Structures are given as structure tokens and as C-alpha cells.
Automatic annotation (TrEMBL):
In the C-terminal section; belongs to the UPRTase family. In the N-terminal section; belongs to the uridine kinase family. This is Uridine kinase. Pathway: Pyrimidine metabolism; UMP biosynthesis via salvage pathway; UMP from uridine: step 1/1; Pyrimidine metabolism; CTP biosynthesis via salvage pathway; CTP from cytidine: step 1/3. Signal peptide: none annotated.
Length: 476
């Protein structure tokens, strides 16, 4: 699999990964909504700070020496001109050499994780993420020491780009990132660039550069840098020369920044962690020329992801089991009191995914009739008789104006379901719908796979999916 990824000629888009910290945060049966929100902070959708200021979006850029990381970062910064962006280099956090180490500098491994003061990096990044300005150390590569009286002041920003050869190595650093990019460049090209850089910019001779590369750089790349590629959300072959990949990444970042900001306003809104695999499926189902079977197939895949993410917000209880090896495994038990409610008819497209995830789950129905441009009338509903005792997953693939959702939520609450026990699952959402629902029901959770631009004059989500029910059931 690694060989296939390396041989790719275009940007590689990785699949989903579940951060293990999110599971541990939900183990306790006393998990509260605020703890759930904190758990999802690792995905980049943190709740707003107490003072109401915004948390920045953090992008990690990793790759081998001279792979073009800085070039990629500069190109991203140039295209994000409408945001405040700062660049933090891992190289700034090299540990200064002692006099004894300086005398034997040829034997010092600058490419090993221990060469960096990761604790200080974490402190600086923590302050930047909390909206504080920091003083970043300045490292003298000729003398291998920090400039004790010089610092680079970095102010608060909308986007923080952290780049370095080992920024993916330490999980604590990875957990700070909302998006991870690996710059993958041919080894011969990287070596040639390093020779030119170290001789011209750092005053070293070719012989010492080659000796250092063979003794330390290449072994460290194989041992630490290359294995960290598996953590990347996006892999860019050819570095800064791959303009297509960088343009796609910038478009993706713009989309995520819009979602990111809305999720800060409403900590009860959760967007499925987006990769280009998910973006690719959205591209397919939004294409007006896609066939109905393909639309159903990729919609079902995305709906399954939304359902799984929504289930992750339900309370769990601890449970011990004995494995076939005779060992004890401490795990969790699923929430038992659960049901789904679909808003007919497009919401019925989400029922199969819910049944596939929750065996034997009860599913209720709510039917509204549209009145004019913006009104809804309840026509029919059939709900489990004990719904007041259950957690409810409300299903509707498109959240537009929010009117249908609000009326469905009000009906559920009249039936005795507490607001905090309702999780609204939707494929795409308009900001207007999110505002409408969250302002009225701040304790309800919304889980969606993408937040679109808004509504047009006809109250249709833009860019949207069209009439979802007709497209899914083939009745258009």
C-alpha cells in the first residue's frame, strides 16, 4: 500500500481515521454535552472560548528535508490573502548545542526528534491557539544556537501553518492540527536541494553535507519522517510544483474555514471530519449528470458516516468483556434507549444506514406539507409510544431554512423528548438553517457532513443537491 501511495502521480486523498482520544473522552457514563464538544475539538471544531474570540485553524505541513514544505506553505499563504495567516517553523525550536556538542557537531543528529524542544513548541502553539501572541525563538544554523536576545513575535491569527520534518511524529503536536499535509518529493531532488541550501545559505561544504545526509538525514527520514506520512489527510507529490494539488487544498481550506467559524458560534454543531475522499463523494452526488444508482451509492456512503458520527455523541457505559485469549478488555456498551425519526420523504433515505448501524432500532415518521414558500403543516406522524424515554436521531438529508426541522423538534418535545436527547442528522446544511435551529434549540446537537454557502431566493440550498428525495428515489 505504501508503494502504491508513493507512486501516485497526483494528490493522494486519505480516508477517515478516528482519533482515539475521542473514544476515551466518551467512556464515562456521566459524559456531558460540553465534554462531547471538547472531544470534537481534536477535529478542528472546538467550542468558542469563554471570551467569545475565535480559535484559529491549524494546518500541519510535513515532509522530508528540502521536499518543498516552505514553498507549499508560501503558496497557501498567498492564496489565503483574505485571512490572517502565520507560519511557524519547527526549525525554530531546535535545541541549542552545548560547547561540547558544538566541538563534535559532525556527530550530532539534527534530524532526530530529540533535537527539537517539542515542549516549548507545544507551549507556543497552545498560546497561539488560545488567541495570544508569542515570541518564537530564532535559531542560528551556522553556530547551532538560539539567538538569546532575538525573537520573532507572532500575533493571533485566523490560520496557523506549522511546518517541519517531524511535526507529525509527536501525537501531542498532531492533536493540535485541523488539517495535515505531507509533501512527498523524490529523494534525489531533495538531496540536490539540500546541498544547494546548506552550502549557499548555511556556509557548509559539500563533503560535510553529504556525510551528514548519509549518516543522519536519510536514516532519520526512513525511521521517523516517512512513517508519519500515514497521519496525513493529504499527500502532495512533487511539492510546490504540484499547483493543481495546492489549488485543491486552498479551496478545501476556504470551505473548512467557513464551517470552522460557524461551529465556533454554535458548539452544538458538528461537521464530520472532512477529507478529500469525502469531498470527492460530495462532488459526485452534486453532479446533475450522475446516474440514480451512483447517486444512491455515494449518498448511502456519506449518510453512513453521518450516522456513525452522530452515534458517537450518545452516552456510553463502561463494560468489561473476556476475550478469547482469556484477557479482560475494558470497553463500552452502546446506548440501549434509542430510536430514529425520519422526516418524510427524503429522510427515509437515511433509514437503511441507521438500521445497518443499530440492529433492530425503532424508527418513527413525521410528514409535513409545504405551504407557500416558507411554511410547513404537520400532516402525519407515527412515533414509538415510549419515545419520551429514548434518545432520538432525527433524520433529514438537507437542512435548508430549518422550518421543518424546528417543527419536528417541537413535536418530539411535546411528546416528552428532552431537547438534549435529540441529535439532528443531515447530509448538507445551509447556514440559515443552522442559525434557525440552534438559536431556538441550543441544547440539541446537529451533525452534518458539509455546510453549504446559503439559500437562494427560492429557499434552495446553494450549491446544494437539488430535490434530494426525487434524486434518491428516482422520481425526478
Amino acid at each position: 500500500m505504501e508503494d502504491v501511495m508513493v507512486s501516485s502521480v497526483g494528490p493522494h486523498f486519505s480516508g477517515l481515521r478516528l482519533d482515539s482520544r475521542r473514544l476515551s473522552s466518551s467512556l464515562s457514563p456521566s459524559s456531558s454535552p460540553s465534554r462531547s464538544a471538547n472531544a470534537d475539538a481534536s477535529l478542528g471544531f472546538a467550542s468558542p472560548k469563554a471570551d467569545g474570540t475565535r480559535r484559529p485553524f491549524v494546518i500541519g505541513v510535513c515532509g522530508g528535508t528540502a521536499s518543498g514544505k516552505t514553498t507549499v506553505c508560501d503558496m497557501i499563504i498567498q492564496q489565503l490573502h483574505d485571512h490572517r495567516v502565520v507560519l511557524v517553523n519547527q526549525d525554530s525550536f531546535y535545541r541549542g548545542l552545548t560547547e561540547e556538542q558544538s566541538e563534535q557537531v559532525q556527530d550530532y543528529n539534527f534530524d532526530h526528534p530529540d533535537a527539537f524542544d517539542t515542549d516549548q513548541l507545544l507551549v507556543c502553539m497552545g498560546k497561539l491557539k488560545s488567541g495570544q501572541s508569542v515570541n518564537i525563538p530564532i535559531y542560528d544554523f551556522k553556530n547551532h544556537r538560539r539567538c538569546s536576545e532575538k525573537f520573532r513575535k507572532v500575533n493571533e491569527s485566523d490560520v496557523i501553518i506549522l511546518e517541519g520534518i517531524l511535526v507529525f511524529h509527536d501525537q501531542r503536536v498532531r492533536d493540535l492540527m485541523d488539517m495535515k499535509i505531507f509533501v512527498d518529493t523524490d529523494a534525489d531532488i531533495r538531496l540536490a536541494r539540500r546541498i544547494r541550501r546548506d552550502t549557499v545559505e548555511r556556509g557548509r561544504d559539500v563533503t560535510s553535507v553529504l556525510e551528514q545526509y548519509v549518516r543522519f538525514v536519510k536514516p532519520a527520514f526512513d525511521a521517523f519522517v516517512l512513517p508519519s506520512k500515514k497521519y496525513a489527510d493529504v499527500i502532495i507529490p512533487k511539492g510546490g510544483d504540484n499547483h493543481v494539488a495546492i489549488d485543491l487544498i486552498v479551496q478545501h481550506i476556504h470551505t473548512k474555514l467557513g464551517q470552522h467559524n460557524l461551529c465556533k458560534v454554535y458548539p452544538n454543531v458538528f461537521v464530520v471530519h472532512t477529507t478529500f475522499q469525502i469531498r470527492g463523494m460530495h462532488t459526485l452526488i452534486r453532479d446533475k449528470n450522475i446516474t440514480t444508482p451512483d447517486f444512491v451509492f455515494y449518498s448511502d456512503r456519506l449518510i453512513r458516516l453521518v450516522v456513525e458520527h452522530g452515534l458517537g455523541h450518545l452516552p456510553f457505559t463502561e463494560k468489561q468483556v473476556v476475550t478469547p485469549t482469556g484477557s479482560v478488555y475494558m470497553g463500552v456498551d452502546f446506548c440501549k434507549k434509542l430510536c430514529g425519526v425520519s422526516i418524510v420523504r427524503s429522510g427515509e433515505s437515511m433509514e437503511n444506514a441507521l438500521r445497518a448501524c443499530c440492529k433492530g432500532i425503532k424508527i418513527g415518521k413525521i410528514l409535513f406539507h409545504r405551504i407557500g414558500d416558507n411554511g410547513q403543516q404537520l400532516i402525519y406522524h407515527k412515533l414509538p409510544v415510549d419515545i419520551a424515554e429514548r434518545h432520538v436521531l432525527l433524520l433529514d438529508p438537507v437542512l435548508g431554512t430549518g422550518n421543518s426541522a424546528n417543527q419536528a423538534i417541537e413535536l418530539l418535545m411535546r411528546k416528552g423528548v428532552p431537547e438534549q436527547r435529540i441529535i439532528f442528522l443531515t447530509l448538507i446544511s445551509a447556514p440559515e438553517g443552522i442559525h434557525c435551529v440552534c438559536k431556538r434549540f441550543p441544547d440539541l446537537k446537529i451533525v452534518t457532513s458539509e455546510i453549504d454557502s446559503g439559500l437562494n431566493d427560492e429557499y434552495r440550498v446553494i450549491p446544494g443537491l437539488g430535490e434530494y428525495g426525487d434524486r434518491y428515489f428516482g422520481t425526478d
